[in-house]
């Protein structure tokens, strides 16, 4: 069982920055990691992915504003969020992809951006 613990959420103003962290148990350096978000009444959507080799992928709505990174020494994945907008308001979830069919989720952390 892989455990994920997100932190760093909160309430900010539009234009502010925020960094989310996700601490992960297990053989972290083998996992592809991702951040997803879900706003009220909407489906969960991809925010950013980082492979175990460091390759990154971003959702269209966050490209150029958000940066995903990982520190294998600390078993942690980060999401640096800049130029936040009210539409970024959502619960943000950390995801660990173990195999093509096995993935684990964190409990989520709330990000609220006010205008």
Structure description:
This protein is 0% helix and 52% strand. The protein is built from no helices and eleven strands. The protein has strands at 4-7, 10-13, 18-24, 32-38, 45-50, 56-58, 66-71, 76-81, 90-97, 103-105, 109-114. Strands 2, 4, 5, 6, 9, 10 and 11 form a seven-stranded mixed β-sheet that branches. β7 and β8 (76-81) form a beta hairpin. The model has no long low-confidence stretch (mean pLDDT 96).
Instruction: Characterize the largest beta sheet: strand count, sense, and whether it forms a barrel.
Output: 7 strands, mixed
State the oligomer: single chain
Number of extended strands: 11
Number of helices: 0
Distance N to C terminus: 40 Å
Percentage of residues in helical conformation: under 10%
Task: Tell me the Rg in angstroms.
Answer: 13 Å
Series of secondary-structure elements, N-terminal to C-terminal: EEEEEEEEEEE
Average predicted confidence as pLDDT: 96
Quick structural gist:
The protein has strands at 4-7, 10-13, 18-24, 32-38, 45-50, 56-58, 66-71, 76-81, 90-97, 103-105, 109-114.
Helix/strand layout:
Layout: E1 4-7, E2 10-13, E3 18-24, E4 32-38, E5 45-50, E6 56-58, E7 66-71, E8 76-81, E9 90-97, E10 103-105, E11 109-114
Parallel strand pairs: 2-11
Antiparallel strand pairs: 1-3, 3-8, 4-5, 4-9, 5-6, 7-8, 9-10, 9-11
Search tags:
globular, single chain, 115 residues, mainly beta, 4-stranded antiparallel sheet, 7-stranded mixed sheet
């Amino acid at each position: 069982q892989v455990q994920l613990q997100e932190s760093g959420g909160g309430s900010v103003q539009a234009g502010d920055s925020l960094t989310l962290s996700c601490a992960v148990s297990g053989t972290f350096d083998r996992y592809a990691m991702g951040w997803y978000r879900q706003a009220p009444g909407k489906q969960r959507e991809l925010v950013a992915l980082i492979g175990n080799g460091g390759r990154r992928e971003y959702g269209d709505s966050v490209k150029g504003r958000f940066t995903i990174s990982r520190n294998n020494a600390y078993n942690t994945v980060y999401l640096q969020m800049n130029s936040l907008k009210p539409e970024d308001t959502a619960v943000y979830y950390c995801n660990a992809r173990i195999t093509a069919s096995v993935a684990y989720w964190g409990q989520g952390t709330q990000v609220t951006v006010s205008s």
